[in-house]
Design brief:
The protein is mainly α and 298 residues long. The chain has one domain. The chain has helices at 9-17, 23-38, 44-71, 85-88, 93-118, 120-135, 149-170, 175-198, 200-206, 211-215, 217-240, 255-267, 271-297. It is globular, with a radius of gyration of 19 Å. It starts with 8 loop residues before the first helix and ends with a helix.
């Protein structure tokens, strides 16, 4: 495969890392760090390392996904989503393998520092995160091809991301942190749901059995609505039971964006519109979590 002449190498790698997905890596670190700050135990270096590690794992997973989807013949001509660099020949497969491995090595180095700071629980969490990133579309039982992607995204981008960020600063976990992780995981899964809703046709054709393929388009739309409802319920719960002041309701300021996205999801099956909804859901995830983090600290 040869490099497409009109796309520079730098731009090709920019496409490969999928910048629009990176808010999903930032959001759990924001919330976990805000909880540590609220408890008076904010630690800047571990927080920064957690952010860097989260971004590197997300980028590595994106590169691996691009490569493995092509190798497994899941990316087919006519797919509606953003351009894939392996499928289109923008980056040679060998270079993509090296880039993926290099990114995970950097993530492992960051993980080594966090393990030094916080001990063996972070070592186990880091290893599990790396394995999950590779197993999502690779290995003998790819998670994303067997309807388990939604669950694993919730676990790693919600529970693991928020709790891990809090733990490297505080060295303990409590119920408040676990509950605060729920909206983060729910909104990140919502990003995946839009992606899988858009790709139901091509995924079914190639034998990729996402949860959306299994339950169908209408139920997938219902899942999206349920996830957003769950996310917005948590700040209200925090306020009602006294875990936060009224500032904790700040995430509700993002509700108009959520309503617009729900209207798109339920109003169209057009791939271009769903691509906009995908980017919008990633923006919602980050905006909600910024407001949630601010409300927790205030």
């Amino acid at each position: 495969m040869s490099q497409t002449p009109e796309i520079s190498s730098w731009k090709a790698w920019g496409i490969a890392i999928r910048p629009k997905t990176l808010p999903a890596a930032v959001a759990p670190v924001l919330v976990g760090t805000s909880l540590a700050a609220r408890d008076g135990l904010f630690s800047p270096l571990p927080a920064l390392a957690a952010l860097l590690g989260s971004l590197l794992i997300q980028i590595g997973a994106n590169l691996a996904n691009d490569y493995l989807d092509y190798v497994n013949s899941v990316d087919v001509p006519g797919r509606i989503g953003p351009r894939r660099v392996a499928q289109s020949g923008l980056i040679p497969l060998r270079s993509l393998r090296i880039g993926t491995a290099g990114t995970f090595v950097l993530a492992a180095l960051v993980g080594a520092y966090l393990t030094y700071v916080a001990g063996w629980p972070i070592l186990l969490l880091g290893l599990a995160s790396l394995l999950a990133a590779l197993a999502y579309t690779g290995g003998p039982f790819p998670i994303g091809y067997h309807g388990l992607g939604d669950l694993f995204v919730f676990l790693f981008f919600g529970l693991a991301g928020v709790c891990g960020t809090y733990y490297v600063q505080v060295l303990s976990i409590n119920v408040t942190v676990l509950v605060a992780a729920i909206p983060v995981g729910a909104l990140t899964v919502a990003i995946l749901v839009v992606n899988n809703l858009r790709d139901i046709g091509t995924d079914r054709l190639t034998g990729k059995r996402t949860l959306a393929v299994m339950i169908g388009a209408q139920a997938t739309r219902g899942e999206y609505l349920l996830l957003l409802g769950l996310a917005y319920a948590v700040p209200a719960l925090f306020w009602i039971i006294g875990w936060s002041a009224a500032w904790g309701l700040l995430p509700w300021l993002s509700l108009p964006l959520a309503v617009r996205l729900v209207r798109i999801i339920f109003g169209t099956a057009d791939g271009t519109a769903l691509n906009r909804a995908l980017a919008g859901t990633a923006s919602l995830d980050l905006l909600f979590c910024i407001l949630f983090a601010a409300g927790l600290v205030l």
